[in-house]
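Human:
Focus on the backbone:
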Amino acid sequence: MPPQVAKAEFEHAVEDLWVFGYGSLMWRPGFEFVEQMPARVIGLHRSLCVYSFIHRGTPERPGLVLGLDRGGACRGIAFRVAAATREATITYLRGREQGTHVYLETMRGVMLVGKPERRVDALCYVVDRGHRQYAGRLTIDEQLHLIRQAHGQSGANRDYVLATVAALEALGCRDAELHTLAERLNGPHERPAPIV
């Protein structure tokens, strides 16, 4: 979102607000909405590229959570929030998503998947590549190591990954990397790492 004037206009606009969920917002939005639609954004992709020091890990044993990173496309869910609860929803999302300011709060065009498809501007949380929590591109084995050992205020990192995969499957889509992780995390010899 460009500078302060635009931010003020965004916060106090009188129309409904669309919010794009691509990770835990898909399966636990935590705010009131009047409509939800499968949606996709172009130019950004879902990636386990954010070290989690609070919700799914600690500074000593960081976990990994999703961010929207540059390039590609991402399927998720767009939620329409009534104008009357717009400000409260933005306040809630900032408290949830912006605890460490690893995300950039932006409005992006997203396509609502339906007949016909239509484009709306939606609030998106895009990873800040300059932030210290930006993990970049990690190998599957590096991701598994972090996910298996991490637990934070919102629970086990493993549960976060599996819940996101379940939400994607409910949408009828497959994220190759997340599904590979889920298969490995659900393997016959898999046990959650002990919490110490």
Observations:
- The domain at 4-185 is CATH 3.10.490.10 (Hypothetical upf0131 protein ytfp).
- Strands lie at 17-21, 35-52, 63-81, 103-112, 118-127, 151-152, 155-156.
